[in-house]
Description:
Blueprint: E1 3-5, H1 16-31, H2 37-52, H3 59-62, H4 66-70, H5 72-78, H6 83-96, H7 102-113, H8 122-133, H9 146-155, H10 165-178, H11 190-205, H12 209-221, H13 228-238, E2 242-245, H14 255-267, E3 282-285, H15 294-303, H16 312-320, H17 325-337, H18 341-349
Antiparallel strand pairs: 1-2, 2-3
Amino acid sequence: MENVVQLNVPFRQHSSADRQAALMACFAQHRRFGDDVFWLKENAELLNIMESTGAEPDGAALSVHDEFYHDIEKRMGFFPQYYRFLLSLCLDLEDLGMPGEKGAQLAHWVGLQGLAEAELSDLQRAEARRLCARRDVDPMADDTGLDDRLRRFARRCETFSMPNKKAAYELTHIVFYLSEYGRRDPVLDAETLDSLSFAGTLAFLDLNVDLLAEICIALRFAGQEPPQIWENWLVEHAATFALDADPQVDIQDDYHEFLMCNWFMGVSGRGGFAQQIAPGRVAFRGARPGSGPLRELSECMYRMDGTRSGDWQVMRSRVADRLSNEAQAVLIAAEAANESFDRFFAGFARVGLQGAEA
């Protein structure tokens, strides 16, 4: 029943534009439908990548969104809670070549309605500001400290030396917004670069392809060269995706990992989105890289109690003796990839409260 499309199958789409059109049709028409918020999320992510990487889809490719674009004011008025998704989609469609100027109208409406002021998160406020600024609207004009707060969060590298995926994803998006998706220098200080390095080390130890791809993209947006060990691993993983085409295929899949890996490939000059996209409903399956040693390493450290040290040179052999061979191999690679691994480990060890009295 399933048609698994492997990379060695000859492409039916012989150009990048053809593959982009097929991918747009897949996400717009065949995976989710109607006013499903996950439809908004998936399509907003895809179009954002296309717009930020300079894709040039033709009118036929963009036409899969004609009905959505035609009714977008109605959707925005009834679903203002999704205004960031809706505005992002509208702006990207127009900037990709969709005829119309609705984005300016919607950005002004968002500002007049004070929707950004209803956000609890600085990150969400930054996204709203970035979107509206694309049509010369500043919905956060009175908040002159937003960038300072974002940078203060990002430069606290101690946050990113211990497992916290939510914080790590927020860090990458701060860099995306400050850099306008690679269009300008985000002017990151040394502490923030350490934060990205530490977060990337944890992602690598966890074998988290999705997060590591975002961190490598953020580093490149900041004018930095990510560790070759990280990028080589991502390139290898990008080649493993299988595309399952079937009308009944389960789309609880690895679509986001697929998008992030291929976005990374494009940003790093390696192409990206080279797979043939079968017509109709498609699920994206990445090869499981196995269980990363992060949990094993954390449990090992936790069990050491008062004998735990933040000195990696002291702990290296003691830790290695307690890890499986597979975990040791990944740990060795993680150390080789990070010149500041000693400083990362000092935070990861979490020895600050050892011996503290209740």
